[in-house]
Write a structure and sequence with these properties.
- By secondary structure, the chain is an all-beta fold.
- It has a single domain (about 5-10, about 20-135), classed as Kelch-type beta propeller (Neuraminidase).
- It has no helices and eleven strands.
- It has strands at about 5-10, 20-30, 30-35, 40-45, 50-60, 65-85, 85-95, 100-105, 115-120, 140, 145.
- The chain has a seven-stranded antiparallel β-sheet, with no helix packed on it. A two-stranded antiparallel ribbon has the order 1-2.
- A hairpin with a 7-residue loop joins strand 7 (about 85-95) and strand 8 (about 100-105).
- It starts with a strand and ends with a strand.
């Protein structure tokens, strides 16, 4: 899959094809995402191999993404995101020279850089983290899993 900057949306209340919403500030391949009811975030956006840019869009109106802040560690594909109505967590991803173990926290309503939420756990004696590809994330009003 090639990196792209396209943002599409679908109106869930009716059947039909996706419609153009706008564009990210740069291309991205498998960005980490999360949202509240008013704002959506996309992390690890950028044209470099490893990047730390986080974009946001206002869900109620179509248009291009705007810079939100930065991830703590530049990384690329393989990371995940989960959110509730207040906080968005972005975690994992490949970084150089090793996988990124940090869990970044963003307050969705406030622009700014990541704060440290914690780290992903070790899954083997070789110190590999749960974030090198595949995986899934979900959340409810209490937190991400």
């Amino acid at each position: 899959m090639a990196a792209q900057n396209i943002i599409d949306y679908v109106t869930i209340a009716s059947t039909g094809n996706a419609i153009d919403f706008g564009d990210l500030t740069e291309t991205a391949k498998c960005p980490r995402v999360g949202a509240s009811s008013t704002r959506a975030l996309a992390g690890a956006v950028g044209s470099n191999s490893y990047n730390n840019t986080v974009n946001y869009i206002t869900i109620a109106s179509t248009g291009n993404a705007i810079d939100f802040g930065d991830l703590a560690t530049a990384s690329n594909q393989g990371g995940l995101g989960a959110s509730n109505s207040v906080i968005c967590l972005m975690f994992g991803g490949n970084s150089s020279p090793s996988p990124n173990p940090q869990i970044d926290q963003f307050i969705i309503a406030t622009l700014g850089n990541a704060t440290d939420f914690g780290d992903l756990r070790l899954v083997s004696e070789s110190s590999e983290f749960v974030n090198e590809g595949g995986g899934a994330a979900a959340s409810n009003c209490h937190g991400g899993l």
